[in-house]
Design goal:
alpha/beta, 48% helix
């Protein structure tokens, strides 16, 4: 299993080591023995650029998933996670930005596993699975601790 996290934002400090452990715990729960996953933590400006360039959507968003797997290969993907969106949505939903980041990663991984949220019934099914996984991860890890204590991890 190969998980690479790049912190390319300066909004919040992030403990990349703990975040990697949480993603590893997610893979264990989902019984994913072999995966290649790149996670880029970005600011709203970079997310807007990625969203407009690759998806032709205007503005920023919370998470963008790129599936690089071939049909016969294990999970191989890339997630762009917007920390600015996590901060904003945490205030809106009464949670914390750290949990939002983990939720975006869970959401992106579910997309890599074939979940779809474009139609209402599939959206509800995916949201239930996302919530189930978030509850399990919150029991195993203190999600708020991904807020790094030292200088911003690069």
């Amino acid at each position: 299993m190969n998980i690479v996290i790049a912190n390319r934002q300066r909004t919040k400090r992030v403990d990349k080591r703990l975040l990697k452990e949480i993603v590893g715990g997610l893979f264990v729960e989902l019984q994913i023995p072999d995966a290649e996953l790149g996670i880029s933590l970005v600011n709203a400006r970079e997310m807007t650029r990625v969203n407009e360039t690759f998806l032709r959507h205007e503005g920023s968003t919370d998470v963008i998933t790129f599936d690089h797997a071939e049909k016969r290969t294990p999970m191989h993907g890339e997630l762009f996670v917007c920390v600015d969106e996590a901060v904003m949505q945490a205030k809106q939903f009464g949670t914390n930005w750290q949990s939002e980041i983990v939720r975006y990663i869970v959401h992106g991984v579910l997309h890599l596993l074939g979940h779809d949220d474009l139609k209402r019934p599939l959206q509800r099914k995916m949201k239930r699975e996302e919530n189930r996984l978030m509850r399990l991860l919150a029991k195993k890890f203190t999600l708020a601790q991904i807020a790094g204590r030292s200088k911003i991890s690069a």
